[in-house]
Amino acid sequence: MQTIYLDHAATTPIHPEVSAAYIKAMDSVFGNPSSIHSYGRTSRKLLDEARKTIAEALQAEPTEIIFTSGGTEADNIAIFGTVSAMKEKGNHIITTAIEHHAVLNSCKELEKSGCKVTYLPVDENGRINAKQVAEALTEETVLVTIMYGNNEVGVIQPIKEIGELLNGHQAVFHTDAVQAFGIMDLDVNELQVDLLSASAHKLNGPKGVGFLYQRKGLQTNPLQHGGEQERKRRAGTENVPAIVGFAEAVKIARQVMADNRMKYNNYTKKMTTVFDQEGIEYEVNAEEAERLAHVVNISFPGTDIESLLVNMDMAGIAVSSGSACTAGSLEPSHVLSAMYGSESPKLRNSVRFSFGLGLDDQAIQAAATSTAKIVKRLVKEN
């Protein structure tokens, strides 16, 4: 049976060139980059080169990149680190109702210790606007954390407009760009963000490594205490092989980014064309919004998500009902709930398809055809 992986928003396969760079570094370089002898200097050179590569992708400076264990840690440093450093200036946070749980659960934890959090509602296309942020701002606001592109429906938020709005306010501006980095061209200066999170495994890099961009001059208090790695901002010996792999993934992503966006948009068109030809009922969620090209979330009326996912898996098609972090429980999506209300049937019949390395038109055609057959059968059974 042919299997087709359509869950690249959850994680991606490692690119062969990334794997080769990762293994080469792991096999040949083992020195601690903080050591002053030749072994350490060799590791430090690789670390510095990787930092420069990643910084260039954001139009940032190498010293503004903090390597982490992934997107979750980067989000946590941004949120807890900022609130701790700004505690004398206020305790108010602004975020949205559709953030990744790495952000939402961090904010909920801070509420327990007395922080005030405003969760901005989204419209039916999953969007907020800069006016909402302006209306929520107070003299006590110390952090605004809004994701660049949503991991479940792909909706892109007006980050640049919000960055302009916050110019001159004390609030630190963080964006979780885990789903967007490697798909979109991101310029931290154009966006006017102070902090930006990303993770290697979303762009065909290794798991267990990410980074936080932190604008020069901005202070965040560290979450863990130990050595003076990452300019005293994140203690712990750096994972040099994984970081080398991450940098290689970034190089490749930048080369193919524009072509990939075009290809992924065509994949969505191809899928919906098949659905139209097969005569099934469906609706693209957040269809009117600007979205990340590799993510499309589709509602299939008359189906149930659990049966849909099981049947698609049996047919060799790997998809998701939302974020991978909560998929095991099959709880209703907090993103779709925020967009359509907690009683909407879309919460129980929507599937996220996400595209990436290893796919082609033939695979998309086959997946769409199989999906249509499954939907027809499930609708008839119901």
SSE topology:
Elements: E1 4-5, H1 16-28, H2 38-58, E2 65-68, H3 71-85, E3 92-96, H4 101-112, E4 116-120, H5 130-136, E5 141-145, H6 159-166, E6 172-176, H7 188-191, E7 195-199, E8 210-214, H8 229-232, H9 240-278, E9 283-284, E10 295-299, H10 305-314, E11 317-318, H11 334-340, E12 350-354, H12 361-381
Parallel strand pairs: 1-11, 3-4, 3-5, 5-6, 6-7
Antiparallel strand pairs: 2-8, 7-8, 9-10, 10-12
Q: What brief labels describe this structure?
A:
382 residues; alpha/beta; Aspartate Aminotransferase, domain 1; Aspartate Aminotransferase, domain 2; 2 domains; seven-stranded mixed sheet; three-stranded antiparallel sheet; 12 strands
Describe this structure in words.
It is built from twelve helices and twelve strands. The chain has two domains: 4-12 and 257-381, Aspartate Aminotransferase, domain 1; 16-251, Aspartate Aminotransferase, domain 2. Strand 3, helix 4 and strand 4 form a beta-alpha-beta unit. It has helices at 16-28, 38-58, 71-85, 101-112, 130-136, 159-166, 188-191, 229-232, 240-278, 305-314, 334-340, 361-381, and strands at 4-5, 65-68, 92-96, 116-120, 141-145, 172-176, 195-199, 210-214, 283-284, 295-299, 317-318, 350-354. By secondary structure, it is of the alpha/beta class. The strands form three sheets. It has a seven-stranded mixed beta sheet with strand order 2-8-7-6-5-3-4, with helices on both faces. Helix 1 (16-28) packs antiparallel against helix 9 (240-278), helix 2 runs parallel beside helix 9 and helix 3 runs parallel beside helix 4. The protein is globular, with a radius of gyration of 21 Å.
